[in-house]
Amino acid sequence: MEATKKNLLILHLTVFVWGFTGVLGKVISIDAVPMVWYRVLIASTTLFAWFLITKKDIRVTKKQFLQFFLTGGIVAIHWIFFFHAIKVSTVSVTLVCLSSFTLFTAILEPLIKKQPIQMGDILIGLLIILGIYMIFKFEGQYTLGIIFGLLAAIASSLFSTINSTLVQKSEPSIIGFYELVGAFFWITLYRLYDGTLLHTHFNLSAKNWFYLTLLGTLCTSVAYVAGVAVMRTLSAFRVALITNLEPVYGIVLAFIFFQNKEQMTGGFYIGATIILGSIFLYPIYKKRKNKL
Known about the structure:
Keywords: Membrane, Transmembrane, Transmembrane helix. It holds the Pfam family EamA. The chain is mostly helical. Helix content is 81%, strand content 0%.
């Protein structure tokens, strides 16, 4: 019981930290692509150092390496879209749109795993679509941010579905490490292509370095390892419910930090309530369905 309580606290703190990434994305004053490049560089270096300290064997087969490495490209796209959405809209809009990954997972997972789509998944998806429509209708000035937020959700659902298959044969922390390395590689290639890498300089402001270090260590590598560790004692249902608090924590933190800049119309909050209510209902529906 004590171990369960401890892991519940760790999971809540981890989800809280994930919610804080939106705030960091807003206060770091560099564009989304270089921000993610620094993030994965710091995070992969930190994880590698952790593996060295713990003397962990991180050897994988060529097939596994290729799978993780390619999936890292999807992770990179997800983070770039996520932070770009924040830059062109608000943290609240982006986090609510990102919550729609439940909808896209309900569609993509059966397609990838060749399983039938469930009627309950469709109904939950329709509720989420209704919430997205409300946000589009009342927050039209953030259309670009909404689009990139939804694209980030699609990328998130895609790599999450792939990882749910990969994790059956490999340890999550090792998958995460190679995906981070892959993300760094693919972003580096892109930055070579668009010419920005040649102009990369490391003389950023002290504020930017502080926030990037927080983003790469606490919000990425540390949070990832902590999130994986608690899954050994907590049920998937509990983990899913608590993880759904990420946009709630993020929106509250954004309002505390940015106040009036994060204040939305009533229509936005109605749409957000529909979406968040749907994603909280989803794991409850799944648990009851599995009992039948």
